[in-house]
Amino acid sequence: MAATNGSIFAAMLEEFDVAARILNLEPGIWQILTHPKRQIIVSCPVQMDNGEIEVFTGYRVQYNITLGPAKGGIRYHPGVTLDEVTALAAWMTWKCAVAHIPFGGGKGGIVCDPTKMSQRELEALTRRYVAEIVDAIGPEKDVPAPDVNTNEQIMAWIMDTYSMHVGHTTTSVVTGKPVELGGSLGRREATGRGVMIAAREAAKHFGIALKDTRIAVQGFGNVGGVSAHLLAQQGARIVAVTDWKGGVYNEKGFDVPALMEYTRQHKTVAGFAGGQPLPAGDFWGLEVDVLIPAALENQITIENAPAIKARIVIEGANGPTTPEANDQLHNRGIFVVPDILANSSGVTTSYFEWVQDRYGYFWTEQEVNQRLEAKMCEAFDAVLKTSLKYKVDMRTAAYIVAISRVATVTRMRGMYA
Known about the structure:
By secondary structure, this protein is α/β, with parallel strands linked by helices. Helix content is 45%, strand content 17%. The protein contains 13 helices and twelve strands.
């Protein structure tokens, strides 16, 4: 997870600074928006299945809550750090502002390897973590969601643990829940659907129809898999897919449903008979129209960016492109739709879930998708217009939109002392 000066948060600050200078942001607001409001570190002792007690470190960062409650996922991963979680919480702040929803930015994580833990151990860890941060979260304080290695079941445990502490069922404390527990229809596919919409709108900007595009996808989980499936339904050719174990290539385009079924059975795209093996080093240099990094942070770097031939890059993952690589891509005329716009559909539909939970009335999947379509198109249009107005890349434009919105409300609210 190398980044600027070894810090992912420093990479975020580089992106922030460029936009803040263009806005002539006053020093006081600049200071507020570059410091996290709250960073929580907790120790979570868990009795493991072998009877031994292991203590896990957990984090929750509430970066900014000017626009509303903190919003952001919780990830379980051995590489989780406070720096990473803080950077992701900051990105959530800008993502919510770009999406024009009334949330601030938050993020959480636990340093663990969930692949080596039983279901009982994961439940015990989740409940202990929630118990440690219970005073800091809530429907009007901080609303967690799934992230890397967390899912609907873990969100259900979070909701139940919080509800037990407050003494009544509170479904709106967390999003990404099972539909039976107050989850929203369309939530599982939302991020991938938003990536598809972003790709469609970017192609439209260049006068290209999706049916004429060749697309490569890095990562074939919930985001990459769903976006590939929806893009294929729009007529696009998905010619390359890679994941943690390997990659496959098919010049004519994959049968995406068959690839998804293979992945469900084998937990990887590697070995899929409908394509030829794709060496990891060859992925970035493929002759494609659209490239979708939908894995982890810092995948497109100054080392591999020169190889990229795609005309459009849609960031399905959070922070997949380093600042130096982004500059190089922009200078070469490659149109990058940044993460805080391209995958903001996930948090937008989380917002829909939170609204439905608080309202006690739920929408059909068609209604959810229609509302998501409207919000994504509104956000893309605002960022594109800002990009053209200031003659900057889409990432800088997205930051300009986000920072302007948060700064405006910060000024309006004034300084509490």
